[in-house]
Each structure stands twice: as C-alpha cells, then as structure tokens.
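Tutorial handout. Part one gives the primary structure; part two gives the three-dimensional structure as tokens.
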Amino acid sequence: MVSSKFDIFIMHKSGEIYHIYKSEKSGEVRIGINTLERLTYRLVRSIGAGMMGFAVILFIFTFGPVIKEEVLYRLDEKGVSYQQNKFENLIDKAEADRVVGVQEEAENYGVSSHFSLVIPKIEAASNVVANVDASDEGEYFDALQKGVAHARGTYFPGQGKNIYLFSHSTDANYNVSRYNAIFYLLRKLEVGDKIIVFFADEKYEYEVAEKVTTSANDTSWLSENGSEETLVLQTCDPPGTNWRRLLVIAKPVD
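Part two.
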C-alpha cells in the first residue's frame, strides 16, 4: 500500500528513477519519471549516440582507404582483376602499335607524322609548316623553302573545319631548287583522287571533290568554314605564274 502522507522513489535497475505518487482518485497509483531527470537522460543519450556516430565516421575516413587498398590487393593476388588489367594492357599496346605504324608509314613517304602531306597520284610528299601568315610575303616565302605552308587562322585535320595548305607550282629550274614546288602537278588531280595528311601521329585521308580556278586576289576560301571538314590545296595557275589560283577541294574519306 502507498502512503498518502509521503512520496516513494524507486530506483530502476537500468538506472532510471521513478517517482511514485498517490493519485487524487482513491485507490489509483501512477508511476512517472521526474521531468528534469527525463530531459537529462535524453540529452545524455543523444550525446552518446552522436559520439558513437562520429567515431564510426572517423574510423571510416581514417581506415577506409587502407582497407580498400588491402582488399584490392588481396583480390589482385587471387587473379580477380587479371582479365581487366590484361584488357587495359591490350588497349595500350594496340594504341602504341597504331602510332608506330603511322610513324613508319610517314617515314616511308619521306615525311614526318607530325604534320605532312602526301599525294600518291603525282608522287608529291612534303612536310607542312604550320600557322604561316598568308598575307606576309616574307614569312610564307621562308616557309615555302621548307615545305608546304598551312595558313594561319585555318584549322587542322580532325577539327571538322577548313584546312588551307598552299605551295609554289613553278616549273622554272632555278625556282624549283629555291622553293619546294611540289604542287607543280596539282592540276593533274581529278575527282576521287586520294590525298593523305599526317598530323600529330594520326593519318587522315581525303578525296578530291572539285577543282576551282579563281583570281589571284581571291581570299574567300581562307575564311570558308562550312558544316564539314574541308581540305583546300592552293597553287599558282598556270604553273610558274601568279596570274590565277588553282584550288583543289577535298573531303574526308569515311
């Protein structure tokens, strides 16, 4: 029986303290925890849970990478990732073989795979000097002694835009020795003839689509940028003069 003159406190085995008090209604007893103690208990429990969570996160960040590497090492020892590594090595080897193949093919033509031009039909092969100012006579004459000139402001193979290359076509012996006149026979090309360009250890193939004869002052093709990649070869016409320009327009071979 619970006395009505005093309250009785009971210590629960879990450490919770319960306050037993007599109800105003006769014969009824209620058990409840002290409000302050209840709040303290919840606060302590929340702090404890937070500290445990923080400890778990700290453990994962501290030892997670070590555990990961250890597991991967064990799997590799057992040959689990062998096939994947082998496949990656095969890809690397295939790419290396491709680059070597391109370099060797360019060397067989007597040019560099860095940037060069080969036209099999007329047996023309020359390295290309990149980014030459087509409006600066001194600059492009100097470039034409070394090879074919790539016009500054135009694009490179694989970029999907206009590539503009130009060279002399003189038939005078003293000028042939002075300039790299590999475009002398450019007029012999017909639609469908193949043109090869080596650039950055890649091989690009083009087919002649058309030939255009225009005035010596026509620079419209220098700024032409259509919706697809176009290779433009420019030379003088007739050979040995500067009366007109002969343009050979080629498109990439799929």
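Part three, for discussion. Residues 29 and 231 are 100 Å apart (CA to CA). The chain has four helices and eleven strands.
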